[in-house]
Specification:
The protein is mainly alpha-helical.
Length: 96
């Protein structure tokens, strides 16, 4: 997996986003979230016993619809929180 080097080590999520577009920030959140989901899925496959592995192999949780719903809901939640913080900080910046 190739990751753009400026996004390492934390995909740039904890840097200042002042003046950056929301789309760029959301794409960084998405990249980090995809890496987390792949790692989570790999961990599930590594810890599965024989019967579970037969069910999960080769796609693991990625073939379960509820996993996709949960994954998208978490991503949208993370983006919503970031937008909320931007609006909150912009409100106080305009007050000063």
């Amino acid at each position: 997996m190739f990751v753009y080097s400026n996004n390492l080590p934390f995909f740039g999520l904890y840097r200042s986003w002042r003046g950056e577009s929301l789309l760029l920030e959301a794409s960084s959140v998405l990249a980090a979230w995809v890496v987390v989901l792949i790692g989570f899925n790999a961990l599930i496959l590594l810890l599965a016993n024989g019967e579970q592995l037969k069910i999960l192999w080769p796609y693991g949780l990625f073939k379960v619809e509820s996993f996709w719903i949960w994954s998208v809901a978490c991503f949208l939640g993370m983006c919503t929180v970031r937008i909320g913080f931007r609006l909150f900080s912009a409100t106080f910046a305009n007050m000063a």
